[in-house]
Amino acid sequence: MPDATRGFVRLTGSEELEKVGVRALVVNTLHLYLQPGMDIIKKATRLLRQPADSARQGDIHNFMNWNGPILSDSGGFQVFSLIHKNPVMGKITDQGARFKSPLDGSKHELTPEKSIQIQFALGVDMMVCLDDCPPNEFSRPDLEKSVKRTISWAARCGAEYDRQVKKRKMKTEERPLLFGVIQGGAELDLRKHCALELIKIGFSGYGFGARPVDKDGKFLGKVLQFTADLIPKDSIRFALGIGLPEDIIRSAAMGWDIFDCVIPTREGRHGKLFFQRKSNFQFSIFNFQKNLKSRNANKFYQTININNAKFSKDFSPINPESKLPELREYSKAYLHYLFKLKEPLGAKLASLNNLEFYMKLMEKIKK
Question: Domains along the chain?
Answer without folding.
Answer: 14-180+203-211 (3.20.20.105), 268-366 (no CATH)
